[in-house]
Structure formats: C-alpha cells, structure tokens
Amino acid sequence: MTHPQDQHPPQDARTLPARDHDASEALLERVRQAAATGTALRFVGGGSKGFYGRPVAGETLSLAEHTGIVNYDPVELVVTVRAGTRLADLQAALAQEGQQLAFEPPHFGEDATVGGTVACGLSGPRRPWAGSVRDFVLGTRMITHDGKRLHFGGEVMKNVAGYDLSRLMVGAQGTLGIIDEVSFKVLPRPAASATLRLEMGLGDAMARLAEWGRKPMPITGAAHDGETLHLRLEGGASSVANTQAQLGGEPDGTSFWTQLRELELAFFSRRHDDRPLWRLSLPHRAPPLALDGDTLVDWAGAQRWLRSELPAATIRQHAAQAGGHATLVDRDRAHGVDAPFTPLSVVMDKYHRQLKAKLDPKGIFNPGRLYEGL
C-alpha cells in the first residue's frame, strides 16, 4: 500500500514556488489593439496541448508570463491562480498542504499551464469518481473582446446575468475570451492508495465493474488494456486495505496511471501504432462497439481510446448510436483532420454561433479552434 506518488508533479518542481507576475495590463492593451484593427489572436500558454483542436490563423498572444498564485486558503479548500502559471507549480503548492486538483488534469508537457488546463477541459483517470474540470471551477476572471477584465463566479459557485461564464470557459479553448485568473475548489489528498492488476477479458471486467459500482468501494481508477484490468484504490488506510484483500489480484507498482493520464503508454505512441487515435466518450455500460481496431478502456468504460483506420463518419456514427461522441486526439498527427470534434447539430451550431457573436463579436479570439467559423 502506497501513497499516490504518481500524481505528484516532477520532483524538481515541488520546491519551486509559482513565479508571481501580473501581466494583465499588457494583455488588456494587446486585446484592445486587436479589437481596434480586427486582428485575430492565437492564445498560447505552455504549448503542451496545441495538438488538441483545429489550427488557428492569427497573431500569437502568449500568457506564459501571467503567473502566480493570487490567493490560497487551504482551510477553505480554495485557490485562485493566474492563467499562465505552470500546472506543476500549482500542484506543488497544493501538495505541500496535502491537497490536490482532484480531477487529475493531464500535463502533456512540463510547461502545461492552468489556463490551458481549463481551456481544454481535459480530466484524468479519476474523473468518473471525483468530477470533471468544470465541477471544480468556482470562478474566473476573464478578458473580454473590448479589453475589459470581468469577474464571474468567485470562491462559491454563482451565476451572473443568466450565464455561468466560469463554466462556459471550460473546454471553450479560448474562443469566448481570455482566461485571466481561475478559482478552483481543491480537495485533500487520499491517506492511502493501492494499484492492482487482475488478468481478465473485457467482458468480465465490465461485469465486475458494474457489480463493484453498486458497492461503497474506494475505486478511483479502472482501465482495461485488452488483457488486464487495472484498478486504483484511494481513501482511508483500512478501507483501501480491506478492498484490496477482497478484490485480490496482483499489486501493480508501475507508473501505469501517470502514463495513462499523459497518453504515454505504448498504445498511444505513433511509433507503436500509426493508426489515428480516437477518444470515444460513451455511457459507461455501453457494450463494445463493432469497430475494426484496437481499444483501451478507461473511466470504467465511459472513455474508450480507439486505434483505427476507419473513416471518421463511421466511427462517429457508432459512437452516436451508443449515446456518445468521438474526438480525434492524435499528438503525433497534429491537426490531421479538419474537424477533430464531432460536428454540431443544427440547433447546437445556432447556439454556439449566438454565444460567439455575443462574447466575441469581431471574432478575434482563437477563431476556428473548435469549429470552422467559430
């Protein structure tokens, strides 16, 4: 039984405080100039998630110098941080107080930033049990299209003028405004953890997970690689020990969960497999899809990674029939498909365009990052 060391930031980052530098005035001025000239801006933090989405044609606006923890109250479980702060620096500060970002965000590189984490809205293996990025964002300060700083939400969840803009910024990839600061709810790190390997097929694994899901077990990770069910247990020492004894299996002392979160397993490597990589979001009890290719199952079945040469339309049709959707996520083939995200329905496209027109009427914020014309 061990503490969850594979979720810590790199060792050399733990003792480094987040550098404090407020670059908001320079960012505001740059946006005002862009708005006056109609110049499109392409936002960059650490560049670690540049592969996720469509390419943006515009002048680069870096947020990497807008850094620092603005406020951290471990007792109230709230931290406010500037968007350019390295994710590793924030996690190091939280770890010193025995706390964490429970949604387990992926880094995809040592320069990953807080702003990029929120903008992309990606969560790690703990997401089904802890919640998503959106669930932990309490408030944001954003820079609007006319070069103003507006604060939405706060250190308690709050709607403003009918829009929960704090949460709308999650996953918007900068198309609605610039994330200036973010307030997160943080949680204590688990007292103990254990990782297990159980050799079984996918069908048996899914049946076991459905059974265990009806019991109060401290499972915070469940993935199947085609041959083995990988489990992570986290919680009180006695709860973890009792569950480990009940489930059996072999202890897994590898860095599997870190490699899964960071897409560093051999399954995700282009050197290992040159077929396009798809992320399928499905109901967790959806049966295996009849798609040619190889699959790695995460989130106890709700997230499935697919290596396949099938056409995008075929993959998306099967995902939709199962009640989900499919996204092209290929770090080695950046922007290899013009539409990496599932095309919007007519109704959803209308709402997206209305929201874009309201918050970015001149179309200067990361235009086209999510969809053409948005």
TrEMBL record:
Enzyme superclass (EC): oxidoreductase
Keywords assigned by UniProt, alphabetized: FAD, Flavoprotein, Oxidoreductase
Superkingdom of origin: Bacteria
Record domain FAD-binding PCMH-type: where: 7-189
GO MF: glycolate dehydrogenase activity
EC number: 1.1.99.14
Classification via Pfam families: FAD_binding_4 (PF01565)
Coiled-coil regions, chain positions: none
Name of protein: Glycolate oxidase subunit GlcE
Protein encoded by which gene: glcE
